[in-house]
Amino acid sequence: MRGDTGMELLALRCFQVVARHEHISRAAAELRVAQPSVSRTIARLEAELGVELFERRGRRIRLNRHGAAFLRRVDRALGELADGRRELAEAAGSGSGSVTVASETLMTLAALLPGWRRARPGVDLRLRQCPADAMAHLLRTREADLCLASEPLAGPGLESVELLREEVLLAVPAGHRLAGREGVAVAELAGEPFLTPGPGHWQRELADRLFAREGLRPTVVCEGNEPGALLDLVGAGLGVALLPGMARDAGLRATVAWARLESPDSHRVLWLVRDREAFRPAAVRDFAAFAVAHFRGEG
Prior knowledge:
Strands 3, 4, 5, 6, 9, 10 and 11 form a seven-stranded mixed beta sheet that branches. A two-stranded antiparallel sheet has the order 1-2. By secondary structure, it is an alpha/beta fold. The chain folds into three domains: 69 residues, Winged helix-like DNA-binding domain superfamily/Winged helix DNA-binding domain (Arc Repressor Mutant, subunit A), CATH 1.10.10.10; 96 residues, D-Maltodextrin-Binding Protein, domain 2 (3-Layer(aba) Sandwich); 104 residues, Periplasmic binding protein-like II (D-Maltodextrin-Binding Protein, domain 2). The protein contains eleven helices and eleven strands.
């Protein structure tokens, strides 16, 4: 450790970004510094701590157990500093505040944004799209104030508020044999080309669970990280997909038809997730309240 002030905040931030990417060049790109500078910073930090934080195998790096333990402390420390800055800014009355919201798909937010903009036009609103398994990290590092997830997120200090519970429908191309059907059995979907986000997304988890109950596996012909694109892919005739009711309510497309599954648990719950230990400026509190009212039909 150097001097009484210990390691530099920039070095901790560098470590945090490298730990998230587990890739030096990607971390350097995010930090906008040269790759050798990132490598030197991590080496100096490890020398100060007296332990290695990463396992190195050729050009690949992975957090080791020391690095994982240190990362939890670094996330907490830098999160506290971020909270302190926002708390002071609010006390000083500087600006109208900001809110960063993460969601699995931005379609979830589209309907509430016009009303929010009218209610709080001066607030700086930032949106992020990411899978649910990345959201706890965003909340812990204060890279997001609120998350909208289709599952309650696990983690110390996280709290989830149910926003809505909705039916999950089967989207099929227009003219498909199942178009307009009520009570489609999962067994009838055996062999159907399935479009789904990758593992970890709620649609994939639901599809795998429904098919496994019948001793089947979905025939996945397309998987990716853009849930909002599924409707267009179904319309293009590439296959069928499980989509929330709000996808149909957002606007019918002539190339897409819908069917209902007979499974009783063909639904999803949308949660608003936040870190109860984080400082919540007025803008964040207001957005949370607005989202709850909107999805519960109280707005």
